[in-house]
């Protein structure tokens, strides 16, 4: 049963919200202590909400789009009365006093928020090993990282602990764990979803987006969370598509679709991953898609550009964590990677270095954005691997640049502000591999259509 079919089943009272919730509670009780997908749960409140929804349905009252759907929220997105920790000792005791815009919209549509998911500390990582609550294991490949920084959300979906989950994506933090855990993850166009109530990592990159097991789940959540928010200056006033219609009618989505295949994306990826993605592209061609070979000469520029801007924006964002109003002073309690980024950001922000590094990075970003716009001009989407290598085993010691290398194919969408998603493409000896779609700004619906079409190829 797809997420959309399950949603309809709950509305028809063939399945109750309470039954749906209890199935997930059992799974959480059985597996969460080992996987650590969730770091905080509110089971009693979730049960009350499920009963309230069932009573509404019984009485013929109108219910929201997410009625009975069980949702996990990444721990850097505000949910009132939950601890919003960003998985850091800095905020371990901080209790959310308000709902982020996306949270309000989920609640308004009768979604059942069961808990907060694990993540890399302050979203600064690609493995979910830096959390102060301990690492998250990968349910799809036990003993390996689930990816990051939204690893808890991806793992919760992969382990069957909730219907839907939210993550944040700064340089791949939704798509990377979606790929590693064998689920779907979607990064919307920058500004398509409100960032109000999200704890910044790098404000010019950050986007909130959904995880699900299928395209209909991504579509359903996007219909709820997307749209202008007058309280958040980066949001776009746009007509949110009926994403669920796109996900339920994928029959002809591939016919005539132009797929841009960038050879450099394959050159930096492991051979086993390349073989899987090439097989998928061949299947898409057989289903009617047209493949256009492209070249992108600035791939090596993307990671340094992304991280230089990231460091500066993260340093700026963390100045409020000074221990005066709430929490601890960040530099005194944070982990190694967070401290590295603060120190690098502080250094680059100094007047004498700003022009040498930060301003040049902004110029490089403009160049990358222009080049990506050029590549997308005559194709519908760019198609390739999500992550260039398989997830490493938990506890493996990596140098910072080895960890950053996971992001080489995902930072591009954040630098360019375009929508991107990861969808399962296959596996290497049981370890999942994701395929990434990237499209023009506000062509989010086109990506959803392709994700749905991909499911039909399985």
Automatic annotation (TrEMBL):
SUPFAM superfamilies to which the protein is assigned, alphabetical: Amidase signature (AS) enzymes
Assigned EC number: 6.3.5.7
Superkingdom: Archaea
Pfam family name, one: Amidase
Catalysed reaction, written as an equation: L-glutamyl-tRNA(Gln) + L-glutamine + ATP + H2O = L-glutaminyl-tRNA(Gln) + L-glutamate + ADP + phosphate + H(+)
Keyword Transport attributed: no
Family, similarity comment: Belongs to the amidase family. GatA subfamily.
Name recorded for this polypeptide: Glutamyl-tRNA(Gln) amidotransferase subunit A
Coiled coil: 36-63
Active-site residues, as the UniProt record annotates them: 74 (charge relay system), 149 (charge relay system), 173 (acyl-ester intermediate)
GO CC terms, sorted: glutamyl-tRNA(Gln) amidotransferase complex
Enzyme class per UniProt: ligase
Protein biosynthesis recorded as keyword: yes
Limits of the Amidase domain: 19-448
GO BP terms, alphabetized: translation
Organism name: Methanobacterium formicicum
Description of how the protein assembles with itself and partners: Heterotrimer of A, B and C subunits.
Protein function: Allows the formation of correctly charged Gln-tRNA(Gln) through the transamidation of misacylated Glu-tRNA(Gln) in organisms which lack glutaminyl-tRNA synthetase. The reaction takes place in the presence of glutamine and ATP through an activated gamma-phospho-Glu-tRNA(Gln).
GO molecular function: ATP binding; glutaminyl-tRNA synthase (glutamine-hydrolyzing) activity; transferase activity
InterPro entries linked: Amidase, Amidase_CS, Amidase_dom, AS_sf, GatA
Alphabetical keyword list: ATP-binding, Coiled coil, Ligase, Nucleotide-binding, Protein biosynthesis, Transferase
């Amino acid at each position: 049963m797809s997420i959309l079919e399950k949603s309809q089943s709950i509305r028809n009272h063939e399945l109750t919200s309470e039954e749906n919730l209890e199935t997930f509670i059992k799974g959480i009780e059985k597996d969460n202590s080992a996987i650590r997908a969730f770091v905080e749960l509110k089971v009693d409140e979730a049960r009350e909400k499920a009963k309230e929804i069932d009573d509404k349905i019984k009485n013929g009252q109108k219910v929201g789009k997410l009625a009975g759907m069980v949702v996990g929220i990444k721990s850097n997105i505000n949910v009132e009365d939950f601890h919003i920790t960003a998985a850091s000792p800095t905020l371990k005791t901080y209790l959310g006093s308000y709902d982020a815009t996306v949270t309000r919209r989920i609640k308004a549509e009768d979604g059942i928020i069961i808990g907060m998911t694990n993540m890399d500390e302050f979203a600064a990582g690609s493995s979910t090993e830096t959390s102060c609550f301990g690492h998250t294991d990968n349910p799809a490949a036990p003993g390996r990282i689930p990816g990051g920084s939204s690893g808890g959300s991806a793992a919760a979906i992969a382990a069957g602990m909730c219907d839907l989950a939210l993550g944040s994506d700064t340089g791949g933090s939704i798509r990377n764990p979606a790929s590693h855990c064998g689920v779907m993850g979607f990064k919307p166009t920058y500004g398509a979803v409100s960032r109000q109530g999200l704890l910044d990592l790098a404000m010019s990159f950050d986007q909130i987006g959904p995880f699900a097991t299928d395209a209909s789940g991504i579509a359903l959540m996007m219909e709820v969370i997307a749209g202008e928010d007058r309280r958040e200056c980066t949001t776009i006033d746009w007509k949110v598509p009926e994403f669920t219609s796109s996900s339920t009618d994928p029959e002809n989505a591939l016919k005539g679709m132009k797929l841009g295949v960038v050879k450099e994306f394959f050159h930096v990826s492991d051979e086993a991953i390349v073989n899987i993605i090439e097989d998928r592209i061949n299947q898409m061609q057989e289903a009617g898609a047209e493949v256009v070979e492209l070249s992108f000469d600035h791939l090596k520029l993307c990671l340094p550009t992304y991280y230089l801007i990231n460091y500066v924006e993260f340093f700026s964002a963390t100045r409020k964590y000074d221990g005066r109003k709430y929490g601890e002073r960040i530099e005194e309690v944070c982990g190694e990677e967070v401290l590295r980024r603060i120190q690098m950001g502080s250094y680059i922000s100094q007047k004498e270095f700003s022009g040498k590094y930060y301003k040049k990075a902004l110029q490089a970003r403009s160049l990358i954005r222009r080049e990506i716009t050029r590549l997308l001009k005559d194709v519908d989407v760019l198609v390739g691997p999500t992550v260039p290598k398989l997830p490493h085993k938990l506890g493996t010691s990596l140098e910072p640049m080895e960890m950053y290398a996971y992001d080489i194919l995902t930072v591009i969408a954040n630098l360019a502000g375009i929508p991107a998603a990861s969808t399962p493409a296959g596996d290497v000896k049981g370890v999942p591999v994701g395929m990434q779609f990237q499209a023009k700004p506000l062509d989010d619906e086109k990506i959803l259509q392709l994700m749905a079409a991909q499911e039909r190829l399985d």
